[in-house]
Amino acid sequence: MPGTELFGAEERKEIEDVLSTGIMFRFNHDAQRNNIWKAKDFEEEAKKITKAKYALAVSNGSAAIMAALAASGIGTGDEVICPPFTYIATIEAVLLLGALPVFAEIDETLCLSASGIKAAITPKTKAVCLVHMCGGNANMDEIMAVIKEHNLILVEDAGQAFAASYKGIATGCFGKAGAYSFDFFKIATAGEGGILVTNDETTFKLADNYCDHGHDHVGSNRGMENHPVIGFNFRISELHAAVGAAQTRKVPFIRESNLKIKKALQTQLSKTEGISFSKLGDDNGDSGTFLNILMPSTEIARRTVDEMNKAGVGGFNYWFTNMYHFINQWDHIKQLKTASKLAIQVLGAPQDYNNLSIPKTQDVVGRLISFGIRCTWTEDEVKALATKISDCVVKAMQPEKV
Ligand SMILES: *Cc1c(COP(=O)(O)O)cnc(C)c1O
Hints:
alpha/beta; Aspartate Aminotransferase, domain 2; Aspartate Aminotransferase, domain 1; seven-stranded mixed beta sheet; four-stranded antiparallel beta sheet; 13 strands; globular; binds pyridoxal-5'-phosphate
């Protein structure tokens, strides 16, 4: 959680600015706010990193995905190809919009593969919600070719991949709209916050309306603004945006530091038999937030996790058994347990979620162990961690040999 490690005077100053006027609302109040616009600052900082034409700061990353899908025209009955390995917010956003998730295979980039997407396409497929997992990037050239060939809409959940890129283009900026999260566990945090990006003006305006009860944000009399579409409240507060802006300014430093640490860990760990690493669509575009190791088998990964728990090695995720990141534990989605009736219960699920055949995904996620990189780690701490991981892997590999 790099952002949280660097919480200091810069963030405090931004918050003080907001408190000095008391205007915690991002719109209007021009006379009282002393020209302090933190949501706008946050958006400008996000644009600097992503080079997106338009950025909209919202209440959280989940709202950003939902708005990105909605503003891209995804709604009731539309089939959306999704990965079975993602934070569950991706799937929730699709479902809550009335759309129907279709699960497809990922590969060793930890993201949907072009062949996985292709195999999941039906005449009803409207969009692909691509998730750039664990700080990395998908194989965009191959994926974009499938998107174009089949005339699909691409929406990107780059919730974990702010500051990642592919061949110089930011993850999140390939499709019609993209989303980033700035929750407490991401490369930079606003406490709670999200950023929606797009290069399309119409999509941006629609998202802007959608995230604030339809408001068109024209003029200075909020109560008399037009409401071109029905929306909801996904606004960010000025206090959260203030923190988000300060943190986003630190992202280039965080990324550089993360990548140095990741490289050192990989160099040391690659000497240990059994350890390999997840792949990147573009090796130069990693955000460095996670070290993702791949074990030879799920069995060895499980034993490595057991050894690390015994040895007190913390700070890692074994997603295969995680309740929120992998489909094997999503019983509530498989059984369509909802608080109130959703479109999928009326229209029917597009796949038998209880009997999905996703062997490649099962294999990759079963073998994957991810370590959150802390940008403040010293060289000694990095060496000590790599040694501990290696020791655990050596022990976990043993039973295979006897
Ligand atoms: C964190 C995350 C989200 C959700 O973001 P919040 O800000 O917590 O709502 C969505 N998708 C992915 C891939 C994430 O990692």
